[in-house]
Write a structure and sequence with these properties.
Number of domains of chain B: 1
Largest sheet of chain B: none
Largest sheet of chain A: 6 strands, mixed
Order of helices and strands of chain B: HHHH
Number of strands of chain B: 0
Distance between the termini of chain A: 24 Å
Distance between the termini of chain B: 10 Å
Helix content of chain B: 55-70%
Number of domains of chain A: 2
Radius of gyration of chain A: 19 Å
Largest interface: A-B, 26 and 28 residues
Shape of chain B: globular
Structural class of chain A: mainly beta
Oligomer: heterodimer
């Protein structure tokens, strides 16, 4: 895959050349693009080869040069469970969902149970806005075939891959659970929680987090059979007796607060190393903010800084990356 | 791979090491279901067995179970 930050004119030329594209940019930029074989989502924060930056003029363009065929679909929130049905026999799918939408909530809570979800890589992100515009404008997704702009549902780009090529989807999570910290389990799945069981004892979760002086920048982390899955904290309100999250906590999953990681940019750079060049990737806006990544280079993984990342399921504070490789070179577990 | 291995996988908390992300998330979800409702173990074993039977990419993950 080719990943490039482009001017609107440059991106328009790629579209008019018939290329299959995944785009990220401001709503204004995306609305200026011609119809074609693309889907897009709003984002104005990017990690580029030159460093992190806020950019409302240009668009981030990923080309699926290996695509043998493609299908673009928009799914209403009520139809999300069928999003895997129109996949190709051998391929990969990308997905864009507007933040704060019904689809965002539905996918986050129910997505892991969608039929066929784990059959092929599903990679994408939750689209956002400029942080100053939250609440004033809605994040969008765009159907490039017609230019239709939606603030609800999900845009899917299903791509057929040539035989002998496969997609591999993985994550880079800088956080790991602090194993010396308390075990936290929730009774209900949701984007907020009033209570939790901490080491088996039911507690007011907002009071608990305030009591331990928890740093909002550190997510809750669960161990999914060796994959570390974060839930980021949106707010702690002891007065309202509520803790809000950027992804749902899942009932029955054991969480712990994350270990502090120190200097984010340095740690991320060290973990990434020299990888990333031609991979499709996105990274969390919280990492961008908390890591103060504006102007900082973080290796070769470039792409939008997003309001949630999708690698099969909704993730937080995680870098998601997708690469295409020859079947014989695929990782052997 | 026989069902006993899948059963062991779903009732343990074993780290699946270098298995794919898809397999790890799927196994974690099935483990949670089984933990909450042990009667679902046979159904979960069937789901996991079908996943590995259907998807060639996942066959490499069998070594991690």
């Amino acid at each position: 895959m080719k990943n490039t930050m482009m001017t609107i004119a440059e991106a328009a030329a790629e579209i008019e050349a018939g290329k299959v594209l995944l785009l990220a940019g401001s709503e204004s930029a995306l609305r200026h693009l011609p119809p074609g074989s693309w889907i897009g989502g709003t984002s104005v924060y990017f990690l580029t080869a030159q460093g992190g930056r806020c950019d409302e003029e240009n668009v981030f363009v990923t080309e699926f040069a290996a695509a043998r065929d493609f299908r673009i679909r928009h799914y209403d929130p009520d139809r999300l469970a069928s999003l895997c049905e129109e996949r190709f026999e051998h391929g990969v799918s990308t997905i864009l969902i507007p933040a704060f939408s019904r689809a965002h909530e539905a996918f986050a809570i129910e997505g892991a149970g969608y039929p066929g979800l784990f059959s092929q890589p599903l990679m994408g992100w939750i689209t956002g806005t400029h942080l100053d515009e939250i609440g004033r404008t809605t994040p969008k997704i765009v159907d490039g075939r017609s230019g239709a702009v939606h603030d609800e549902g999900a845009m899917l780009l299903h791509v057929a891959l040539p035989l002998g090529r496969r997609a591999e989807l993985d994550i880079i999570n800088l956080f790991e659970p602090d194993l010396s910290a308390d075990r936290i389990v929730f009774e209900e799945t949701g984007f907020s929680a009033a209570t939790a069981h901490v080491n088996g004892e039911a507690v007011d979760f907002a009071e608990y987090l305030s009591g331990i002086g928890h740093d909002l920048k550190l997510p809750l982390v669960a161990d999914y059979a060796g994959a570390m899955i974060n839930v980021s904290l949106r707010g702690i309100s002891p007065e309202r007796g509520l803790v809000q999250f950027y992804a749902p906590v899942i009932a029955g999953v054991e969480y712990r607060v994350a270990k502090s990681i120190g200097d984010y940019a340095s740690v991320l750079g060290a973990q990434i190393g020299s990888a990333g060049g031609e991979q499709l990737s996105c990274n969390c806006i919280l990492n961008y903010l908390y890591g103060e990544l504006e102007g900082k280079r973080t290796g070769n993984f470039t792409g939008p800084a997003t309001f949630g990342e999708i690698a099969y399921i909704l993730l937080n504070q995680t870098l998601v990356h997708l690469k295409l490789e020859a079947e014989k070179a695929a990782k052997v577990a | 791979m026989n069902d006993a291995v899948f059963r062991e996988t779903l009732t343990s908390s074993k780290d699946l090491g270098e298995a794919s992300l898809a397999t790890k998330i799927l196994v974690a979800n099935l483990r949670r279901e089984v933990s909450g409702q042990p009667a679902l173990l046979d159904q979960a074993v069937s789901s996991l067995s079908a996943y590995f039977a259907k998807h060639q990419f996942a066959s490499k993950d069998l070594a991690a179970l």
